[in-house]
């Protein structure tokens, strides 16, 4: 399993997931840069992702949804703020409605994904920061830790 550590910190309002992969940084970058590859690993098992739009560049957007086993679609949007290919990118991630309008009643996270060479492969660090400890707790209660971990753990099969 690639995920090696999960740190939740209500004081700093962050959840950080660390994962190690046995492939080069450039290969892990491709997973996030190619919407068809991202669809295969972004949603946890049983909640496949569909990427409707993706622009992995500063000012770019990603519109996506995950489909539950019951057929319910859960919409989200990324607003990309920084990109340093193939090392890191940052974005805000918010829950949305079917027209990809951010739901103001749901938490929005500021995220940074970083990929560095480590032991002949790649160490990925996924950090999400929320506006309040309550917002972080809300997504933790919704299962973000398990969902993100099982999604990230699917990357090994894709890059094998």
Describe the protein in words:
There is one protein chain. This protein has one domain: Alpha-D-Glucose-1,6-Bisphosphate, Chain A, domain 4 (2-Layer Sandwich), CATH 3.30.530. Strands 1-2-8-7-6-5-4-3 form an eight-stranded antiparallel β-sheet. It has 160 residues and is of the alpha+beta class. Helix 1 (25-33) crosses helix 2. The protein is 24% helix and 44% strand. The mean pLDDT is 96. Strand 3 (49-54) and strand 4 (61-67) form a beta hairpin. It has five helices and eight strands; from the N terminus they run E-E-H-H-E-E-E-E-E-E-H-H-H. Residues 23-159 form the Activator of Hsp90 ATPase homologue 1/2-like C-terminal domain. Belongs to the AHA1 family. Pfam families: AHSA1.
Protein topology:
Blueprint lengths: L2 E7 L4 E8 L3 H9 L1 H7 L7 E6 L6 E7 L5 E12 L3 E9 L11 E11 L2 E10 L2 H9 L2 H9 L2 H5 L1
Antiparallel strand pairs: 1-2, 2-8, 3-4, 4-5, 5-6, 6-7, 7-8
Family: Belongs to the AHA1 family.
CATH superfamily assignment? START domain
Mean pLDDT: 96
**How many E-type strands?**
8
Determine the number of helices (DSSP H or I, runs of at least 4 residues). 5
How much of the residues is beta strand, in percent? 35-45%
Q: Which CATH top level class fits?
A: Alpha Beta
